[in-house]
Amino acid sequence: MSTALLLAEPQSDTRGFLERHLTNDGFQVVGAEARPDLVLLGDTAALDACRARHGDVPVIVLGEPESDMVDRVRALDRGCDDFLAKPFDYQELLARIRAVLRRTTPAAHETLRAGPITADLATRCVAVDGVPVTLASKEYELLLKLMTDPTRVFTKEQLLREVWDFRSLGRTRTLDSHASRLRRKLGTAAPGNFVLNVWGVGYRLLDG
How many domains, in total, are found in the chain? Predict the structure, then answer.
């Protein structure tokens, strides 16, 4: 079964180019009424509306030519999975699409557990003590990373590199804002200490 891609790209020439080449590469380009496996979004301002309509489906933002690192960080802060400014190389976009799909399409029904938290990797369903928790895509990926070793302290640099693929770290609140939202959502489902900030170092999921 082919992967369903939604092209939410306002520029008709770019949309036509992508539709032709992605179809040739085996993807199914679908309309806005379908449930896509991934969205290519041509306008960062439409990210919230995309999330409201399609939930935690992976999103790659195709930024404007004048986009800079600040635009990329802001888009990632708002919950996109990757950001690529125009004009882009098609082969690079294709590699990024496949990388995002690899991260977000795991093998059938492998489940991770950490304390009271469970994550079904096939359905991307998370629960705390059996209570479902709805997470945005990057919140989910951050949780999975912390669940791999729940009492270990992951440094901020590690998490920004491995969850957000940041090459140059600089000053960003991306990690802190996502960790705060993740902590609040897990804590709403069940009492407990989750996503602990180790001052000056990074984060761990559970108390040791």
Answer: 2
